[in-house]
Amino acid sequence: HTSIDGATWNADNDGDSYGDASSTDIDCDQPAGFVEDSTDCDDTDGSINPAAANRRGRTMARPPEPVNRG
């Protein structure tokens, strides 16, 4: 489905308001289940998105252990 003057909408399959750039629709009006944003790296899991605090596969670095000089 395409429209000459429409906007590109990105599928938001997990409902987190971040869309999948590989699944789009061009339409004048926002289709159900689509959003403007295209930055979702895993559109099957709503807890994984650009605003999520912890992303799968990434760990927080631990500070170095203190050196005992005594």
Write the layout of secondary structure elements.
Elements (H helix, E strand, L loop, with lengths): L6 E5 L8 E8 L6 E2 L35
Antiparallel strand pairs: 1-2, 1-3
Top keywords for this entry?
21% strand; 3-stranded antiparallel β-sheet; rod-shaped; 0% helix; 70 residues; mainly beta
Summarize the structure.
The chain contains no helices and three strands. It has 70 residues and is an all-beta fold. A three-stranded antiparallel β-sheet has the order 2-1-3, with no helix packed on it.
Would you mind describing this structure in some detail?
The chain is mainly β and 70 residues long. It is built from no helices and 3 strands. It has a 3-stranded antiparallel sheet with strand order 2-1-3, with no helix packed on it. A hairpin with an 8-residue loop joins strand 1 (7-11) and strand 2 (20-27). The model has no long low-confidence stretch (mean pLDDT 83).
DSSP summary, beta strand count = 3
Estimate the strand proportion. 15-25%
Q: Report, as a whole number of angstroms, the end-to-end distance.
A: 73 Å
Tell me the structural class: mainly beta
Mass-distribution shape = rod-shaped
Secondary-structure element string: EEE
Radius of gyration: 19 Å
Largest sheet: 3 strands, antiparallel
State the helical fraction: under 10%
For the residues shown, what is the average pLDDT? 83
Number of helices: 0
Ranges where pLDDT stays below 50 over 5 or more residues in a row are none
